[in-house]
Amino acid sequence: MRLSGLVLRHFRNLGSQDLEFPPEGVALIGDNAQGKSNFLEAIYYLETFRSFRGARDEQLVGFGQEVFRVAGIASSSSPDHRRVAEVTAAFERKDGRKKVSVDGTEPERLGEALGRLAAVVFSPTDVDLVSGGPKERRRFLDMVLSLNEPGYLSALQEYKKILSRRNASLKEGYSGSVVMAWNQGLISSGSKVMWARKNWIEGGTQTFGDYYVRVSENARARMTYRPSVPSVGANSVDEIGEAIRGALADSSDRERRMGTTLVGPHRDEVRLHLERADDDLDLRDYGSGGQRRTAALALRLVEAWTIRKRRNETPLILLDDVFAELDQGRSERVLELMEEEEPGQVVLTAPKEADVKIKKDKLALWRISAGRITT
Ligand code: ATP
Ligand code: MG
Questions:
Q1: Which CATH fold topology does 1-118+313-375 show?
Q2: 123 in ligand 1 pocket by Cβ < 6 Å?
Q3: For 334, phi and psi rounded to 5 degrees?
């Protein structure tokens, strides 16, 4: 997918601007704090309707403004460049209301409007996916799967709803039968979530390792699923469901004491390891800065690979000043890999023109200063 037009109205410091994008993409050059990341944040907002930097919607409204609005036209990346969808998003500070539309129609659920740009954003903060706690990696999984796996988002939302009610019952010390009344729903939604996670991780670890080794030129890395429910050998949603059922039964006394649900996808972990002859190293605990950044890049590349494979789309690649912190060998190999793997539209930001090393001579050079873009 590619972006052909973008309308900005008071998103962060970006003011009011209407932009047309060339098919190959854009390199946006600007000094620190001029609005480069804000610009990519605005584009990616049309993919997920939230900030990729984890900011609340209120923070995205331009200072002194009441409402922000972003609209984009997504076009096919095939040679005909046919217009596929117009996506709009608006947020009003006063009532905290978010309004989303696709081709002028508001979807009944936000989930139906997700993923129209088929975009992936690479950012220096991605290193938190590797260095951060299990929650960061669960959030990443949930985002990738919500966008690429039909039914995942609704199963996850259902799971979260039931989990919070079940936790409330446990906290208030209700009898076992009241708590257990939630089990069936927890099991049926939770097993779908876990099954999708297991398949994605197990199906993607080879690709993750291939990307990692291409960039690092030495060790291989892999990712493994560590569910909170032992489900070794579980080969279907139903078998995972049975594993959750068993684990809930085993932990019911402990749950009453702790007042919370102790097993299920909300306790899952994804591990990223460096493979070594004797034993594997957990990148979170032992990885160097460069190794972690490489693993984070590899995760994003697997995300783009997922879009190609599952949605049969060429991803729109958003690069937020990302190669700054890799050594020269690694950054050259990442660029080589990207040129090969990502033939689609690229929108990147960099402080200096000399930092534009991907699709050189093909990208339009735009500049940004105090939120104003000149094309
Ligand atoms: P760097 O190169 O340092 O990463 P950048 O160009 O990516 O810089 P951004 O993060 O895009 O910078 O923009 C930061 C600027 O946007 C800051 O000056 C900040 O004050 C401003 N800003 C952030 N939120 C808002 C908002 N809601 N309204 C107006 N300005 C905002
Ligand atoms: Mg920035």
A1: Rossmann fold (3.40.50)
A2: no
A3: -60, -45
Pocket mutation for ligand 1, best pick of 29, 31, 32, 38 (most atoms within 8 Å of C-beta): 38
CATH numeric code, 129-312? 1.20.1050.90
- Contact between 182 and 189 under an 8 Å Cβ cutoff? The reply is no
Q: What is the pLDDT of residues 256-310, one digit of tens each?
A: 999 999 999 999 999 999 998 888 899 999 999 999 999 999 999 999 999 999 9
Residue 349 has pLDDT above 80, yes or no: yes
Residue-level pLDDT at 219: 85
Which residues in 16-75 belong to E strands, given as ranges?
16-20, 25-29, 67-75
Cite the residue boundaries of each domain of the chain with CATH code 1.20.1050.90.
129-312
CB 258 near ligand 1, within 6 Å: no
Distance between CA atoms of 375 and 365, rounded to whole angstroms? Answer: 7
Q: Distance from the CA of 138 to the center of ligand 2, in angstroms?
A: 24
Could you give the dihedral angle defined by the CA atoms of residues 88, 89, 92 and 96, in that order, rounded to the nearest 10 degrees?
150
Predicted local confidence at residue 131, as pLDDT: 96
38 CA distance to ligand 1 middle (Å): 6
Among 9, 10, 13, 61, the mutation site with the greatest number of ligand 1 atoms within 8 A of its Cβ is 13
- Start-end of CATH 3.40.50.300 domains in the chain: 1-118+313-375
Q: Which residues pair with 374 in a beta bridge?
A: 367
* Average pLDDT estimate for 138-144: 97
292 alpha carbon – ligand 1 mean position (Å) = 26
* Strands 67-75 vs 25-29: parallel, antiparallel or unpaired: unpaired
Task: Indicate if ligand 1 lies below 6 Å from the C-beta of 35.
Answer: yes
Q: How far apart are CA 22 and CA 5, in angstroms?
A: 9
Query: Which residues keep their CB under 5 angstroms from ion ligand 2?
Result: 36-37
Q: Which residue has the tokens 């696709």?
A: 102
